[in-house]
């Protein structure tokens, strides 16, 4: 039976990141290789009466281009649950480390628009440890409620890179570098902006904060947050989204800072039950590509929820 731990306040990045980095140290840290049959802790972390800090929310909107108003931006749900997700991942029982793991995919399912001043209860747990050709994947799931009403579910899928039984599977064709088509928008991002986003979101992972610390984790330079990219990719179309929507993204090549990247937005036709629902709206496909070689930094879909 799952154990629920109700926290009195949101954990601070100042305490979370030292634990996350410490988990990588030899002997006292987590194992370099994790068995696919490793135990996933059944602990649920719970935080009640969570309200958006309006100053940080306004700064988040400024750094991502999202609209600051009466309702929460779609991707801000990731920010609100982030301290709980980190608390879960720095727990010694969690199979692999928070720092060093790759944010592989993300999905936000919003059932309705959420007021920026609504009090939320957030519950976060992990499940579904599984093999992938590149390593092990695990899902960190956060549920958002207003009272007893479920209003959103956020799922972050994280990758621990290592060899698995799937590593020798046949791979698809290698991506070919080619000049991408003219973008709908060119987005510029630099280290200063990403540090401001980090302050607003609370995600101060060392790979984003400085070139030197990013190099310690194998990157040639500091990189942009994947969830900054995910928010920026939908900033111009968020007002067109229905209250009930599912935003699914897959992260690709990291954005090395500073950079200019190509943003593409394509309207897609709703299908299935969403197509016949009253007031049905079309969805969108979004992508962020390298300007010279066309490699994807992010690909995603926004689908109306029936």
Write the layout of secondary structure elements.
Blueprint: E1 3-7, H1 13-22, E2 43-50, H2 54-64, H3 76-90, E3 102-110, E4 120-132, E5 135-146, E6 149-161, E7 185-189, H4 191-201, H5 206-209, H6 211-216, H7 226-234, E8 245-251, E9 259-268, H8 273-276, E10 283-290, E11 296-304
Parallel strand pairs: 1-2
Antiparallel strand pairs: 2-4, 3-6, 3-8, 4-5, 5-6, 7-9, 8-11, 9-10, 10-11
Helix pairs in contact: 1-3, 2-4
Brief digest:
Helix content is 23%, strand content 32%. The chain has helices at residues 13-22, 54-64, 76-90, 191-201, 206-209, 211-216, 226-234, 273-276; strands at residues 3-7, 43-50, 102-110, 120-132, 135-146, 149-161, 185-189, 245-251, 259-268, 283-290, 296-304. It is globular and about 50 Å long.
Describe this structure in words.
The protein has 306 residues and is α+β, with helices and mostly antiparallel strands. It has a single domain, classed as Thiol Ester Dehydrase, Chain A (Roll). Helices cover 23% and strands 32% of the residues. The protein has eight helices and eleven strands. Strands 1-2-4-5-6-3-8-11-10-9-7 form an eleven-stranded mixed β-sheet. α1 crosses α3 and α2 runs antiparallel to α4. It is globular. The mean pLDDT is 91.
Low-confidence stretches: none
**Strand content bin:** 25-35%
CATH level 4 superfamily = Hotdog Thioesterase
Bin the helical content: 10-25%
The major β-sheet equals:
11 strands, mixed
Oligomer: single chain
The overall strand count is 11
The geometry reads as globular
Output the helix-strand order.
EHEHHEEEEEHHHHEEHEE
Main sheet strand line-up: 1-2-4-5-6-3-8-11-10-9-7
CATH fold-level assignment: Thiol Ester Dehydrase, Chain A
According to CATH, what is the class?
Alpha Beta
Global Rg:
19 Å
Please tell me the overall pLDDT: 91
State the helix count: 8
What number of structural domains do the residues give?
1
N-to-C span:
32 Å
The secondary structure category is: alpha+beta
Give the CATH architecture: Roll
